[in-house]
Design brief:
Layout (H helix, E strand, L loop, with lengths): L40 H14 L5 E4 L6 H10 L8 E5 L5 H9 L16 H4 L4 E5 L6 H13 L1 E2 L8 E2 L3 E6 L3 H6 L5 H7 L2 E4 L7 H13 L7 E2 L1 H9 L5 H15 L4 E2 L29 H15 L4 H8 L3 H10 L5
Parallel strand pairs: 1-6, 1-7, 2-3, 3-6, 8-9
Antiparallel strand pairs: 4-5
Helix pairs in contact: 8-9, 8-10, 11-12, 12-13
């Protein structure tokens, strides 16, 4: 795959199939078009494998660190599948309590619980004939995993508060930053559900292993910002290339937004980048003033502390929330706020 033919052309502009992986770039989602960038060999290898299974209905487990772009890859697979004309529906399983997650997935009948004043269809119904993307699948409670397994095996679902099942035709893809095999061994994830989901496994490499992709991604994110800033200075670009990006692509996007807001001219310089980019040993580029030791912002301190706790808990959000003394939903909001979700 040459530098001129990377997976980074918007779908709506009629981008051609990539000559290497044969994937059509992902279509627009939300305000911006999330584009695949694959100048690195690690990402090219992933997309070549993804292209071979995009045309099937097989379940896929996407593994990778938070913010590495698992949902972007999932959307690209859907855009290249026979189901591409139908819905791609995504949900973060760590974002809500189990009782609400069940209703969200399977729907509920009127009067099924307090506040259920009307019947509501769930995401399985919404995704009928399309794809359902279950992000952070490892955070799904065991009790709900059993109901998900039955839905996958039988192709039938039952709304909460109803007794009659009905069939749906949904391709399921899930993602996690955890090792599901270890979760099975520790009795946090059902073994039968694991093998049902894991027909194929795709591992999305972290951004620190995709150095060739950093600046193309940064330039795409800069183009999406409503500012006159058009480029990075050589020193700013060097800092972006040499930072380890623990929050991966999402952290890079936030860093670019930070720089675009602070830059008053046409260039983003090192002084416009977030303070976290200078927190690593040896990370300070020549000519830039580091923040005084012990005098980082409260937001930066909170972010670093959350990163340390998440790492000590092996990426398990429920355990990390307990250590931090907050609810799981609060932790999920904090991860999203600091660009650490994914």
């Amino acid at each position: 795959m040459s530098e001129q033919q990377v997976c980074s052309t918007p779908f709506e502009q009629g981008g051609k199939l990539c000559r290497s992986c044969r994937l059509l770039p992902e279509k627009a989602a939300g305000r911006n078009c999330s584009r695949l960038v694959a100048r690195s060999k690690a990402m090219q290898s992933l997309l070549v494998r993804a292209a071979t299974i995009a045309g099937t209905d097989a379940s896929i487990v996407l593994r990778g660190e938070s913010g590495s772009g698992k949902e972007v890859v999932a959307r690209s697979i859907h855009a290249n599948s026979p189901r591409r004309a139908n819905a791609f529906v995504a949900i973060n399983c760590a974002a809500m309590p189990s009782e609400l997650l069940e209703s969200e997935l399977f729907g509920h009948a009127r009067g099924a619980f307090t506040g259920a004043t009307t019947a509501r269809k769930g995401l399985f119904e919404t995704a009928d004939k399309g794809m359902l993307f279950l992000d952070e699948i490892a955070e799904m409670p065991l009790s709900l995993q059993a109901k998900l397994l039955r839905a996958l095996q039988d192709g039938e679902i039952r709304r909460v508060g109803e007794s009659n099942p009905f069939t749906v035709d949904v391709r399921v893809m899930c993602a996690t930053h955890q090792n599901l095999q270890l979760a099975v061994q520790h009795k946090r994830f059902r073994e039968d559900l694991y093998f049902r989901l894991k027909v194929f496994t795709l591992v999305v490499p972290p951004l620190r292993e995709r150095l060739e992709d950093i600046m193309p991604l940064a330039e795409i994110f800069l183009q999406q910002e409503p500012h006159r800033t058009q480029r990075f200075t050589p020193k700013a670009a060097a800092r972006l290339r040499h930072y380890r990006w623990p929050g991966n692509v999402r952290e890079l996007q936030n860093a670019v937004k930070h720089g675009a807001v602070l830059s008053l001219g046409e260039e983003i310089d090192v002084a416009h980048l977030p303070e976290e980019l200078f927190a690593e040993p040896g990370a300070q580029p020549e000519g830039a003033e580091p923040p005084p030791r012990g005098r980082i912002t409260l937001a930066a301190a909170e972010r670093l502390h959350i990163l340390e706790v998440m790492e000590s808990c092996g990426g398990h959000q429920t355990q990390a929330a307990q250590v931090l003394g907050v609810g799981r939903t609060t932790l999920w909001r904090k991860l999203k706020q600091h660009g650490l979700d994914g």
